[in-house]
Amino acid sequence: MAFDKMELRDIEVWDGNFAAAQAMRQCQIDVVAAYPITPSTPIVEGYAKFLADGYVEGEFVMVESEHAAMSGCIGAAAAGGRVATATSSQGFALMVETLYQASGMRLPIVLNVVNRALAAPLNVNGDHSDMYLGRDSGWIQFDAYCPQDAYDLNFIAFRVAEDHDVRLPAMVHQDGFMTSHTAQGVHTMDDDTAYSFVGDFKPMNDMLDFEHPVTHGVQTEEDWHFEHKARQHNDLMTKVFPKIEAAFDDFEKLTGRRYNLVEKYDLDDADVAVVCMGTSVETAREVAKEMREKGIKAGVLGLRVIRPFPFFQIQEALKDVKAIAALDRSSPNGAPGMLFNELAGCLFNTDTKAMLSGYVYGLGGRDLTKKHLTDLYTELQANVDAGKITTPLQQFIGVRGPKLAFL
Amino acid sequence: MLEIRWHSRAGQGAVTGAKGLADVISTTGKHVQAFAFYGSAKRGAAMTAYNRVDDKMIMNHEKYMEPDYVFVIDPALVYTSDVTINHKDTTKYIITTHMTTDELIASQPKLEGKEVYTVDCIQIAQDTIGRPIPNTPMLGAFMKVSGMYDIEFFKESMQRILAKLPQKIIDANMIAIQRAYDEVK
């Protein structure tokens, strides 16, 4: 192949954006159509530089909007190539229409989403509003907690999405600034090892295969639409988890790094647990450890895969926990919160008597401090001691002014 | 855990400095984290950047920090920002100024009773690099105050990190680092 290899040190100090860009280089993506937006800009900028410097054999398509960026990716993926892009926030919102097209057309595109708040008011910092906006779009959603995860999950996303039994697009989420612009040590793979994990792209129903003409993006009305959507959902529900788990197993064999559908931390004997996503998972682990030193049996459940939702894995992980906090980093705007609702759905038909309370936190990049989490665990323990929930069901953490609580 | 907060203006290289320091420390087997608060990031606006260093994997992603060291790389920020916010009794300050340490403390009473070191990173950068980019000299001063690494090892490491720059600029940075190392008081 006509490109240069790059020498990497075993541990590079990279931020999440550069880690994702390096993963995209090592996967040798054929087409990136992109419209840069903060805080995801350095991902596609990095890829474009690798391309210009001869490290990638591919095509960078400059477009006039995120809607066009995803449209370009859809076209390239339908033509039969390995395709990826990156976006955030408003750009993600503008992509939404085309996200449903990509999943409905079963095109294995990888989208790096650097999570950021949605306006108004305008805000460039990290929260999960855009990630939540994508959750019904039919994409697989992986969640990174740190730059290492952002690197690793890109390879896993390509492996799973491009599998001919799956053929569904995948997002790799990382927290805006808190991961994307935070430099940490990242264990790297050399170029050959990294590429061997994803392998050569194997086209399926590609439009450039003129011997086998196919139609993409058809219209179906009430005669067939439901069957298409039902089969798509069926595949997302039944075919994706085994492929993800196989990819996680193979990745562990290759690198020694273990990923799981849900990431359990000290949950086996936990009385109180926090369920959250993104960088908060790691901070919560540190606080849970400190709570144990104070005699509170604290644990953390992190979602590694958000869609498909690991319903039974979460049931199992939380079955003996007495008080659970669902932490939503997105304004539910008139509901209890996505994680609260999903957890309630998971646990409702089980024997658990766990008390579930919801917390909204960190909007627009507001800091989630260790102090906040210490107070939260203390509150959960108070619920356990009292045998009932002693606080409102929906509280806001870290907002200025009078304490906000609802439900 | 060693924690550092940088006070800078956007464009003075605090983020590059914090990431460069993290990179050097990482090569010695320690775990590192470098990040910044950007806001709307207008060139010249006051901003802060951060380093965490530990022997264990760093799990803490909170932005709140009670720093062991505070680096101030723009002289005016001592007066327009609160460089002592969230301080500990043991917090050490390395501040860019043309004044002596005593003169500086007299001009900013908040620094009274604190462990303050001064060095004129702006002048050093002007003299050597030819531009007021005070980030690498600050790291030279930090090596002296903290005794973290031998200055020759640190300069060698920084040469690798700055490798993308023209040789002339790299050489100028090495002189700047050494001068700040020698001049910090």
Description:
The complex is a heterodimer of chains A (407) and B (185). Chain A has helices spanning 16-26, 41-52, 66-79, 89-104, 129-133, 147-162, 191-198, 225-238, 240-255, 279-293, 311-317, 338-347, 370-386; strands spanning 11-14, 31-34, 59-62, 84-87, 110-115, 140-143, 170-175, 183-187, 262-265, 272-276, 298-303, 305-307, 323-328, 355-361, 394-397, 405-406. Chain A is an alpha/beta fold. Chain A has two domains: 11-201 and 221-255, Thiamin diphosphate (ThDP)-binding fold, Pyr/PP domains (Rossmann fold), CATH 3.40.50.970; 262-406, Rossmann fold, CATH 3.40.50. In chain A, helix 13 links the parallel strand 14 and strand 15. Chain B is of the alpha/beta class. Chain B has one domain: Pyruvate-ferredoxin oxidoreductase, PFOR, domain III (Pyruvate-ferredoxin Oxidoreductase, domain 3, 3-Layer(aba) Sandwich), CATH 3.40.920. In chain B, 39% of the residues lie in helices and 21% in strands. Chain B contains seven helices and six strands. Chain B has helices at 14-26, 77-80, 101-107, 121-128, 135-146, 151-161, 167-183, and strands spanning 2-9, 31-37, 46-54, 69-72, 92-96, 115-119. A six-stranded mixed β-sheet of chain B has the order 2-3-1-4-5-6, with helices on both faces. In chain B, helix 3 (101-107) links the parallel strand 5 (92-96) and strand 6 (115-119). The model of chain B has no long low-confidence stretch (mean pLDDT 96).
Task: Provide a brief overview of the structure.
The complex is a heterodimer of chains A (407) and B (185). Chain A is of the alpha/beta class and 407 residues long.
Question: Tags for this entry?
Answer:
heterodimer, A: 407 residues, alpha/beta, Rossmann fold, 2 domains, seven-stranded mixed beta sheet, five-stranded mixed beta sheet, 40% helix, 18% strand, B: 185 residues, Pyruvate-ferredoxin Oxidoreductase, domain 3, six-stranded mixed beta sheet, globular
